[in-house]
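Researcher: Quick sanity check before group meeting.
Model: Go ahead. Protein one:
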Amino acid sequence: MNIADLAWAGSTALIVLAVWVETMTDLVRPDRWRRRLHDLAGGALLAVASLPAAFVAAIVARSVWPVLSRTAPSTVAAATDHPLLGFVVAFIVWDALGWVDHWIGHRTRIGWVTHRPHHGGSSFNLTLALRQSPYPLAGIALLPLVALTGVPFETAAIAVAVSNTWQAMVHTQARLPLPGWLEKAVMTPATHEVHHDHGGVVNLGPVLTLWDRAAGTYCAPPGHPHEPRHHDCRFGTGVPGGGQARHYGCPPCPRSPRPTPRPSSHPTDCPSPANAR
């Protein structure tokens, strides 16, 4: 077992442990245990169903990696052959491709079909990290593109494992105590919850907020990150006021009618993607 395999094994174990701990914490609450068990069962089934696709993606990437990596300019390949620099390059490129994959998942019909299971939980919690599509078409197609940077496959695999771990952890109900500068640079549980609250039209970045800020799809959490959140968009795939979701989720709250406004001392609106800062 090489270091890449260890990274993937450690990432998987950490995610499963975190899901289990958070689930056990909720099971002691009589108002949550049924819903949480339902989320856990659904997430576990989808996680198992997604394993064949994950293996296919790994086999495809490993088989085409030598061919694609040879197309990188020699100077770039020599630079990215360094473990640390190669990791940074692979992480950034994979994160950018992840934004594209996520955009496809919410803005196209076939993308939404493959991504919708992730938004099918009953509430925002770590079991969403298990709800992966059994047929991640865009992910399988995009992963080999990292090879064009000349980064060795093992280095890229470690970068992807680290990225996936962070993406899973931002679904926790806990609030991570991060420095202010880091909260602006990376997705946090509060930031990613806005993505789920608004049907997926904002905060599409896997880890870095850079791509959303550049595309105008970044939306900061309303109020203090530790305050309770009050949005008029139903969680997940719903639209404000009920009804069926559109194929890419619900639009930003300010552009949607709110039939029954409810008073709240907290901000309720999220800027539209065009005006997001």
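Researcher: Fine. The other one?
Model: Protein two, sequence then structure:
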Amino acid sequence: MAAARKFKFHPAGKKAVFPALAKTTNSPSRSVYNGRGDGVMDVRVVYIDVVFLTNLIINYFLLLASAKICARPARRARCLLGAAFGGAYAVLLSLGAAAFLSGPAFKILSGFAMLLLAFGPGRRFARLALVFFGVSAAAAGAVTAAGLFGGARSLGNIDARVLAAAFGVFYLAATLVFRRAARETGRIMTLTLAVETREVTLRALRDTGNSLCDPITGARAAVVAARDSLPLFPERTRAAVAEAVESRSPEAWLALNELETGVKFRLLPYSAVGVRGGMLPAFRPTRAAVDGRGIRDIVVALSPNDISGSAAYSALF
């Protein structure tokens, strides 16, 4: 006899029991007596807290992986908010109370909603969305393959330990391997530098061949056209800084430390095509950020020449 579809909560375990198929069955593992004397019916037991937490964690790391692949700043609190939305959506699907939400269109819309909550709209949002859906599909495939290899007959029967291990391996691969492959030589980014209260924002070229660094601390060096860096220094010292850099004299560069520039200049050795044993004046900024994300361990090397002949960018990093 057909029975109405309903579910029952068990508050202690945050569990819901669903009649999955109202028919007489001999399956003891998935059957309960329906209380009316007309047979037993298959049920599905869903632990709401497990569904939510599992999807929360997986969605959170999928969002982080997508951000890393796209080299996009990620605020962890916002990623957690987007992941929580995805977890709530998964709970609704598990309850079965709103079957129309399980359609492909709603699943895609939920993915876009997660991305908007985590990152907001902006440039290259379409690329971020493509990466997110691609990473999600790849993660689902990897987890399914690991589960089947481990003996599970379906995705729903995958052991939690296998699920965690498979997803962990996939996340590491996505962030380490895919991110490196996704780096684009020639990508333009925003470099913000600050010395005390003075700040300048520059367009910088991500140069994967730039290995310039501080030989003492190992900090990466950003090469900036000297004239574009002048707003970082007090106005009364800008002419002296520009003249010293143009002189190409290490003695003149070190003499700048006698002025109140707000920084301490040092000599940074470098080599380039046709140049051996060259030197550039360098200093450590008070603060620095790339595309709005703060970075540490950076020095700024000043070049007497323009970095780009077309003025498309004024720094290399």
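Researcher: One line on it for the slide.
Model: Helices lie at 48-69, 76-95, 104-119, 125-149, 160-182, 226-229, 238-247, 250-255.
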